[in-house]
Design brief:
Elements: H1 31-53, H2 69-80, H3 84-106, H4 112-131, H5 140-150, H6 158-198, H7 205-221, H8 225-235, H9 240-255, H10 259-262, H11 264-278, H12 288-315, H13 321-330, H14 340-361, H15 365-376, H16 378-393, H17 409-430, H18 435-445
Length: 460
């Protein structure tokens, strides 16, 4: 039986005043939220594309060289965008949880099963994106799982949600320190065993395990030059399965072994998004002066913090994996990294305020319309990034992996932005959803959703 031709199973008559669950209609969409989502999605590609395209340790050659153009491209992206675009996307995902649920609950519809089915499909799509399309940085899997957790916080007052962000940020720092300490302890234990080995002592089973534990950590997070070269060889293979062998175990470890380390940051940001929606921030309901104040405060505090953090890494001459290992052996904690969640929240709030101020100014409405279309088709456009980048860079595609300079990647980023700015609004003039959004909605409601528009939307 065709899944999309099935109706929802009926076990008893529904009350007359309760309508069947349905997706949000076009007229009910909030343009500011679509635009913010679109900006975040395009921004995320700036951070993702090096993972698709660059060899391990690619930044060794320019990380501490201000005479290299790649240094400055990396500096600008790190200071202004790294982590901020994903934070904005997570916040809007939290908003989306409330929007998906609120109208249905107000009309008396049961939403828990519907929402968890929606998130379950998102987890499956994430597994496909990561293990079939081979995007190791996939967020769909994690958002599906974290969305199920965030669901239970949706009715909490916004003040408590915002407090939860602070608590989770602190806990996230604790988790980071714990992760760093665990890595450092394994390194120090390995060094001690290495000294024993140099003195001619035969290693015990426990010591051999110590060696293996460190080698596993190094291979996953701090590959040496030989391992990096082997990874590049695998990525440039014309055989799909060979390329897949480079990523699949590592991806699965992140999705299972390190899952608890990865859920707190997106969860905090989803909760913040919920609070900001309830406060009216993301829907443009604040007075203009409050957005200006938020922007000035965010940039005024956030930029010095992130620039200090960037300078700290540069001035300490942590140029490569070996330098980081030496630094780790001598330092029990990297204090500068603890400011990361705080500078990122300050800057993402400043970015969001600036975007909302631009929207409210009614300047560049054509571009705003296109960004909103990208945000409305965020799922499709996100997976399009995977398809385009893997086919350009992986060995079974155009085999451009490890062939480009870092700055050259952003010509492709710009080209993908232009493509999606053109294609997304054209698509939505003729169809109600992006193709993957349509599949996701049909699976969520367990019923084939209308796809084509009966009356195409006219151009601006």
């Amino acid at each position: 039986m065709n899944l999309f031709s099935m109706s929802m199973p009926v076990t008893e008559a529904a009350p007359a005043n309760i309508t069947a669950p349905r997706p949000v209609a076009q007229a009910e969409r909030i343009q500011i939220i679509d635009i913010l989502r679109g900006v975040a999605l395009l921004g995320i590609l700036m951070m993702n594309i090096p993972v698709f395209s660059m060899a391990d340790r690619f930044s060794d050659t320019f990380r501490n060289d201000p005479t290299n153009v790649n240094f400055w491209v990396s500096a600008v992206i790190t200071v202004l965008f790294e982590g901020k675009m994903r934070a904005l996307f997570s916040m809007i995902f939290g908003v989306g949880i409330i929007l998906f649920i609120a109208r249905k609950e107000q009309s008396g519809q049961a939403v828990t099963g519907l929402f968890f089915r929606r998130m379950g499909w998102l987890v499956l799509f994430g597994l496909i994106d990561s293990h079939v399309l081979l995007w190791m940085g996939d967020i769909l899997y994690f958002y599906g799982i974290i969305g199920m957790i965030a669901f239970w916080f949706r009715k909490i007052k916004p003040g408590y949600l915002a407090l939860g962000v602070i608590l989770v940020a602190i806990f996230d720092n604790v988790m980071y320190v714990s992760f760093y300490q665990d890595m450092r302890n394994k390194r120090l234990a390995y060094v001690a065993v290495e000294q024993q080995q140099k003195q001619g002592h035969k290693l015990t089973a426990a010591q051999e395990q110590t060696v293996k534990d460190w080698q596993d950590v190094q291979k996953s997070f701090l590959p040496n030059k030989v391992e990096a070269a082997e990874h590049t060889r695998l990525m440039k293979s014309p055989d799909y399965l060979t390329v897949a062998s480079r990523y699949r175990k590592e991806v699965w470890d992140f999705q299972t072994k390190y899952l608890l380390h990865g859920i707190w940051d997106p969860l905090a940001l989803m909760l913040l998004g919920m609070a900001l929606y309830k406060w009216g921030f993301v829907t443009g309901q604040w007075p203009r002066r409050r957005y200006i104040q938020t922007m000035l405060l965010g940039y005024g505090l956030g930029l010095p913090l992130v620039m200090f953090s960037f300078y700290y890494g540069y001035s300490r001459h942590i140029t490569d994996s070996e330098a980081f290992i030496r630094y780790m052996e001598k330092h029990s904690i990297i204090w500068a990294n603890l400011i990361y969640p705080f500078q990122r929240i300050l800057l993402v709030m400043a970015h969001a305020s600036l975007i909302i101020l631009i929207i409210q100014s009614h300047k560049g409405q054509g571009l705003q319309y296109r960004l909103g279309a990208i945000g409305q088709m965020a799922f499709t456009n996100y997976v399009m990034h995977t398809v385009i980048c893997t086919l350009v860079f992986y060995g079974y595609g155009l085999n451009q992996y490890a062939e480009w300079e870092f700055y050259q990647l952003y010509f492709l980023v710009a080209a993908i932005w232009v493509l999606q700015l053109i294609v997304s609004p054209i698509w939505l003039r003729h169809f109600q959803f992006g193709p993957l959004e349509w599949v996701w909605r049909s699976l969520t409601y367990w019923q084939r959703q209308p796809f084509r528009r009966t009356i195409p939307v006219s151009k601006l």
